[in-house]
Amino acid sequence: MRERLQKVMAHAGVGSRRYSEILIEQGRVAVNGQIVTTMGTRVNPEKDTIHVDGMPISLNPEHLTIALYKPFGVVSSMNDEFGRRDLTEFVEKYEQRLYHVGRLDEDTEGLILLSNDGELTHRLTHPSYEVPKTYVARVEGKVTRGLTRVLEKGITLEDGPVKVDKFVLREARDRNSIVELTLHSGRNRIVRRIMDEVGHPVMELVRMRFGNIQVGRLKPGQTRVIAGNELSALMHLVEM
């Protein structure tokens, strides 16, 4: 079913129909890769792709993506076979059936995304898109600033080489230190294994950021819907 472009844009959360019309008139809207300036253009939300200022907009009203602050001790599963505490209790209020985007270890807390958009989920978890993730960790021992150079250059683990995109020493004390790591590797327990390898085992670990999505003001167990410009930027990150 084809609908007026400005109506589809308004339903997708771009803005009012009048604001959408202004964007079209200014040549800031593309349909299937072609700039559209003709008012009254009709599109098929199920088949066409629409970009505003080069950023994609989500056209399927059934699609839902949320951010969850996963508490410590919760497994990244929608139905844990061992009866452990899982993610289902935090998404029961949503009507759509959601799937977790990647995983966080049971003993790691922080940001995890859940979505029913299969293509978005696939791309966010596929290694070829190299989506960066940022963690803050409390580790054993006093970390020196020289570790930044070591980790950003790369080290070798039992399953191959890995390097940290960015390493920040936030606080260094004799018994423990606080560090921030940004990396795009999705290998199992990668942050813990990296810090083990350099002699600073992780004591506490929190994921603060996934792509452009930040944990923000979320507290353990809280969720928020990702929409509008934030969702567009996330889709753009994986070339949708």
UniProtKB/TrEMBL annotation:
Its EC number is 5.4.99.-. CDD domains: PseudoU_synth_RsuA_like (cd02870), S4 (cd00165). GO terms for molecular function: isomerase activity. PROSITE patterns: PSI_RSU, S4. Signal peptide: none annotated. It comes from the Bacteria. Residues 3-63 form the RNA-binding S4 domain. The keyword Ubl conjugation does not apply. Keywords: Isomerase, RNA-binding. The keyword RNA-binding applies. Belongs to the pseudouridine synthase RsuA family. This is Pseudouridine synthase. It comes from Actinotignum urinale.
